[in-house]
Design brief:
Keywords: Cell cycle, Cell division, Endosome, Membrane, Transport. By secondary structure, this protein is an alpha/beta fold. It is built from six helices and seven strands. A seven-stranded mixed β-sheet has the order 1-7-6-5-2-3-4.
Length: 249
């Protein structure tokens, strides 16, 4: 589909490259990624069309745009149906020391104004850095466009003196959330192993390492200490599903 006739200027070349990749992903049945490339390629072609004055070239560009738009629309309908049927599945592999995977970057695609309730199952919200991870995740949830009112946390109890620190930390987070009009419900389980996050708009995210996939910063004044998009990650896998209904814990 991505024809060599597009290769006349930098913008046309970029469009051809992106659309070629879209076709490759499409042929491999990697439809979510293909859709993104089709949409990006179409936007680039529209920019080329705006700067084209020759009527014949404009006609050819419109035909190409129409063809790609039809394919993109068909893929979108297919993915929407997959979501409706509860069959949608996307996998992201985070490589060792990879960056760019802050909670905002990873979750923002699935958070919108329909999200009012969140369920988190993670056995390791216990140590100080894990409590901070959970706090950071909660901070993301109360920002727009979300309208989160209830957060359910299922985790495991720490042992010994650390249990006091865990309880105090979660209590402080609970009180802080309450001041923002958000209820935090905490339950403990000694048999929990799975790590799972669910939103009441149907999205379910399973992260191999749970929320604790960031590496320790090199120092308090190193890049990535504050901005977690710059923080290196441990290797892990993120599986994303969509279901019509989200179960309660």
């Amino acid at each position: 589909m991505a024809e060599s006739g597009l290769r006349q200027d930098p913008q046309s070349t970029a469009a051809a490259t992106v659309l070629k990749r879209a076709v490759e992903l499409d042929s491999e049945s990697r439809y979510p990624q293909a859709l993104v490339c089709y949409q990006e390629g179409i936007d680039l072609l529209l920019q080329v069309l705006k700067g084209t004055k020759d009527n014949t070239k404009r006609c050819n560009l419109r035909e190409k745009i129409s063809k790609y738009m039809d394919r993109a629309e068909n893929i979108k309908k297919y993915l929407d149906q997959e979501k409706e049927d509860g069959k949608y599945h996307k996998q992201i592999k985070i490589e060792e020391n990879a960056t760019g995977f802050s909670y905002e970057s990873l979750f923002r695609e699935y958070l919108n104004e329909t999200v009012t309730e969140v369920w988190i199952e993670d056995p390791y919200i216990r140590h100080t850095h894990q409590l901070y991870n959970f706090l950071r995740f909660c901070e993301m949830l109360i920002k727009r466009p979300c309208k989160v009112k209830t957060i359910h946390l299922l985790t495991s109890l720490d042992e010994g003196i650390e249990q006091v620190q865990q309880s105090r930390g979660l209590q402080e987070i609970e009180e802080s959330l309450r001041s923002h009009g958000v209820l935090l419900e905490i339950q403990y389980s000694s048999s929990i192993h799975d790590r799972e996050i669910r939103f009441n708009n149907g999205w379910m995210i399973k992260i191999g390492r749970g929320l604790d996939y960031f590496k320790k910063p090199q120092s308090r004044f190193s890049l990535g200490y504050c901005d977690f998009d710059l923080r290196p990650c441990h290797e892990t896998t993120v599986d994303i599903f969509h279901k019509k209904h989200t179960k309660n814990i």
